[in-house]
Every structure is written in C-alpha cells, then in structure tokens.
Amino acid sequence: MSPALSFSRPDIQPDGDRVVAVGWSSDGHLAMSLGWTLPLLDIRPPDAVLGFYCPTDYEDPSWASPNLPFGQDPAPSPGTGYNFLYDGLHDKPVSVYTPRASKLALGGWKSLEDPRSRIILHMDWEDKSLPVLINGLRRTGANSVTNPPFPSVEQIQAISPLAQIRAGNYRTPTFLVHGTRDDFVPWQASQRSYGALRKRGVPIALVILTDGLRVFDLYPAIKRNPAAVKEVNDGYEFLGAHVKPHV
C-alpha cells in the first residue's frame, strides 16, 4: 500500500505487518501462490488466505479435458469476421479486463463476440488451459498464433497449490469456498487440498455449498440465501482471526 495514498476513512490505517489475501477463481489461485513464492524472495507470505472456487489441483484430469460451460457449441457461427485468438492478444500484459454487457457474455464474463474471452473459451473447449496458462500464447505473424506445448509434470506442480502443500512449501492458514455445481473447477480439488493441509497441521477451513454455482456469491440471488451469506462472512471472520493485534 503506497504511503502517498490518502483515505476517506482516517480511522482505517493499513498495517503492513498484518496482511491477508483474498481471491475469486484464478485470483484465489494467485492468492494461494503467495504462500510458496514470496518466501523464495525472502518476503513473508500472507497471514491467511480466503479463496472462492479457485483452482487448487492442476494435476486433476479435468485440466486435460475439454470443458463446455453452459453446454455451448464451441464452433463460432459462420461469417463472424474475427480471428478466434489473434484479435485478443496484445503486445503488453493486460491486468484488468471486463467484456462489455452488450457482448452477451456467458455466465457474465465470457463471450464469443469478445476477443479476450475467446482465449478463455479456447482454453476450455480445446483442453488448452494448462498449455496457455504455463507456456502462453503469442502472435507469430499476420493472423497466426503459437500452439503452446503441454507442460511437463514439473511445470504443472510448480503452479499447483496441492502439489506445493504436499511438498511442504505451502503452510498458510486457508479458508476455501466451493459450490458443487461449479462447471469449471471441480469442487473435489478443494476437498483434496483441505485434506492435505489438515494432514500437515495447517489451519484450514472448507465450505462446500450444495448446488452452489460458480461465482454464486456475485449473483443477486445470494441475498435470498442466508446460509450462503453466512459462509462468505465466515471466510472473512477466518481472515480477521489470523490478523488480530497482539495484546
């Protein structure tokens, strides 16, 4: 947190000695990855992590299989007039991106009409998630894109929280939330990570929401589900318990 920033609430002061990380989906994976990557840089990892429906086991067979969210046909309609992948690639990294609402996004964020979300759909439909995540996509010329190879086991384990837990490299107190109707990341992976952390004596909590959809907490309907609201709040209570000031 930059010391030059001013806050509208003077009663809230950031404390760099008490830090937690929260993330949804891939951001949850990034939050967990701080637990084993920061120590390599001699930086203290977060005091706790809260992850919502995040990937924790990249060795799960689902990552090497096609995934058709919402039962959509992977073939673009004739006459779309776009290059499926090329148009979504940029020369510089893009850190924040949201498809326009007019693009009729699937699940609120993926649309064939949107060049960036077509990359995600390509990863889902063509079982290219791990090749793209680990080895990347690049433009190679006019309207052509690289075809990244499938990564090695060592490459996959280097980014997989469960593999790092089993290796003893991840010891951060963690709270995981996952719905049983997640059509992208298997909830069973969160269950395996929970078991592995418990086995190593790391503080861990897991909430499995029966019939919980992906991004369930971002739908307005959550307001009509007190149980789901409580589970989300419990996650933040977990974080708070791990950064309480010492008396």
From TrEMBL:
Domain annotation Peptidase S9 prolyl oligopeptidase catalytic: ranges: 155-211
InterPro entries: AB_hydrolase_fold, Peptidase_S9_cat
Matching Gene3D superfamilies: alpha/beta hydrolase
Pfam families per the UniProt record, alphabetical: Peptidase_S9
GO molecular function ontology, one term from the record: serine-type peptidase activity
Coiled coil spans: none
This protein's name: Peptidase S9 prolyl oligopeptidase catalytic domain-containing protein
Any one Gene Ontology BP term: proteolysis
